[in-house]
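hey m, so remember when u said the tokens were messed up on ur end? i reran from scratch. heres the input so u can diff it against urs
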Amino acid sequence: MERRVILAIVLMLIVAVLPSILSPPKKVVRQTGGRAVGDTTRMPAVAESAAAPTLPSAPSARPPVRASVGVPAETVWVTSSRYRLGLSTAGARLVLAELPEYRSFAAGDSGRPVQLVPPGRPLLAHSILLGADTVSLADWSFTPNARLVRVPDTGTESVPLTFTAVRGGARVTLDYVFLPGEYHFEVRGNVTGLGSQGAVLLVGLGDGLRSVEADSMDDFHHFGVVTKAGRTQSTSFQSFKPGSVKLLDGPFEWAGVKSKYFLLAALASEENAPQFGGGIAVGGPVEVTSSSLLGGRAGTETRVSLALTLPVPPAGDFRYRLYVGPLEYRRLAHLGHDLDDANPYGGFLRPIIQPVSALVVNILIWMHDRLSLAYGWVLVIFGIMVRALLWPLNQKAMESSIRMQAVAPLIKETQERYKKEPDRLQREMMKIYKEHNVNPFGGCLPMLLPMPVLFALYFVFANTIEFRGVPFLWLPDLSRADPYYIIPIVMGVSMFALSKIGQIGVPPNPKTKTMVYFMPVFMTSLRG
């Protein structure tokens, strides 16, 4: 299947590139942020590496539109209690997205609010695709209807911000419509004078969000392209090798890029509105560093830029919604369209872990809200509850283990006696198990049943934004490992103590004695 996909990609690239080689244009016009996307009827979403050069656009057969010269770009500010957005008059692009409710832990930020737009790499770079021609709006000078917009925290009335740009006989209008108390807003646009018959809007979502975590390398490991086409799918940036090409098969209800705790996603504006398309992805490297108690680390990660396409009807109108904010489970679930799946739990075990993780998150948030407890105490109480619920299974496993140890001498004697008679040996062993009420798998099954819950707890604690930056007792951050290794040591000591208690009154067994010491040491080193 992978070979067929690769072959299909190669054939598509040949079909896209070969005509331009055989019939090169007489003149090539370079446009920042633009890209020719071939057959626009397929409505591809295009993702490319941040390191990849901008490709030349084919010349337009329509009246030329001259670039604005000498017009300095200004920033229009949109403020609310949720965010502080900066939109440039150059292309009406998003150049700053601060979230005052969340602190940045990145080196050099000194606890300032989270800022999600990477420096010098704006988001929302719009382009108009007209057949094989590309008209980039990145260098168009837009005129806003206001320089400062304040969005209230409550109410139902939306707050619009309008950008207008005119070149020759072409006119582009972009309306950003903000909602009180929300992290998402609507983008409405109109294009006239460019011959919008069969046009496609290309929305550039950048090459990933800015890392705002203390461990930026760990944050980059969570960077990914997330899409919803029938089902939600997350593609890690790490899977994009430099120069590699991948297809993103649409159409999409929504698509975007995520970090460990934050999300930028474009959504179809209405239930029956046109959806975003599929496309191509190309990887490119970027150097990242990370700080920890053991010193700094450096490595090479991959950034992948993402662009989505949306058909523009002959009237020239288009609209979609944009979410810029935290990967907060309840908020995303409220928006619908399975947007809460943008933060997948469980990795390759996701089909098993995700439902359990969603249940755990809901329980923890409910306890926090209803009991008015800090999340640290919520986790303590929840941990005791889980331990109590799993206690019967642990007891069952311990009883089975003790019985197995009791019959171990008989099993060994039987194996020596009938080692040359396999059939007889099997019958005699089953007879011993039955007489002593021993289930050879009784010690394993009770321990395997809680594993989905334990794995779910691990992913929830490490990837839920509600725990990010929350201190508790000696822990500076519940979402990160114990910097003083107190919890791993306490866990190892308690595991050793419980194992020793379970061995009281049981005949000594060298293998069991080894496990009593080995498992606590192994688990402590693993957690540390």
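this time it looks ok to me. Residues 474 and 484 are 9 Å apart (CA to CA). if urs says something different then somethings off w ur setup not the seq
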